[in-house]
Design a protein that fits this description.
Length: 260
């Protein structure tokens, strides 16, 4: 794995060029431009706020529901959009894969980097909301943010490159992945707090790594407390998925050019 990382570093200019090309293609000739990076999460939160403050009130521990839900929607949007883009990254660049040698994982990684740029914009708005609502945030909590992000990054990389490889062989991976993401959304604490899950089942609930990741973002950013032990299973599962996804990708990589 170390040698593959070194190869990727050697082609970082290529990865960066693909990332920039993806971003330009996404926002070129768009009236709103980069604002589209926050339109989707903001629109989603607006709908949730109406439903879960007016129709079916949810106990958020005294935090405004807009902030409560947006703190979860931002990392969730990174996961959902990255996975769908990464899954299609190889088959959408068939000519490159078939004719030019380069580390194949560079394509899904470039797709992820483009979505991280969107995440950064959305996260700035999240930080502004935290300030506007006067939510206190501690320095020790902020120091946890890079760790939480790395855990989420490992999860996305493992699932994304694994899906990209599998999609080369079975093109129905893309619609199936979108269905899984929809179900996964409701199985994660985005619309509701973890406290609604019965305590005796929370150990199982936190085997879903996004449960721990979202809870950790909320604890640090809106509840002014450090993440609990629930972050450990999220980290363990995410690391396992990263290793398994990367192993599968490298195992079948030699077949890509022939199939594509």
């Amino acid at each position: 794995m170390l040698s593959q990382a070194q190869q990727l570093l050697k082609t970082r200019d290529l990865v960066w060029a693909w990332t920039v090309r993806t971003l330009r293609g996404r926002y070129q000739q768009s009236a709103l431009g980069w604002l589209w990076a926050i339109v989707q999460p903001v629109a989603t939160v607006a709908i949730f706020a109406v439903v879960f403050t007016r129709i079916v009130p949810v106990d958020t521990g005294g935090v405004p529901y807009i902030l409560f839900s947006y703190a979860a929607v931002v990392p969730w949007t990174l996961l959902a959009t990255s996975l769908t883009d990464m899954a299609m990254s190889l088959v959408q660049n068939m000519n490159l894969v078939g004719k030019i040698y380069f580390p194949r994982e560079a394509l899904p990684i470039a797709a992820l980097l483009a979505r991280i740029a969107d995440f950064g914009i959305s996260f700035v708005l999240l930080a502004i909301l935290v300030i506007v609502y006067g939510i206190p945030v501690s320095l020790p909590g902020l120091l946890f943010l890079p760790l939480i992000f790395l855990i989420q990054l490992a999860l996305i990389l493992g699932l994304g490159i694994g899906s990209a490889a599998l999609n080369v062989f079975y093109r129905d991976v893309d619609p199936l992945l979108k269905l899984v993401i929809q179900v996964w959304f409701y199985a994660s604490p985005i619309l509701y707090p973890v406290s609604l899950v019965p305590e005796k089942w929370q150990w199982l609930y936190f085997l879903n790594p996004m449960s721990g990741i979202i809870a950790a973002y909320r604890d640090v950013l809106i509840y002014n407390r450090l993440p609990g032990d629930y972050l450990l299973p999220a980290a363990a599962v995410s690391l396992f998925i990263f290793v398994a996804g990367y192993w599968f990708f490298k195992r079948v990589e030699f077949q890509f050019a022939d199939i594509i």
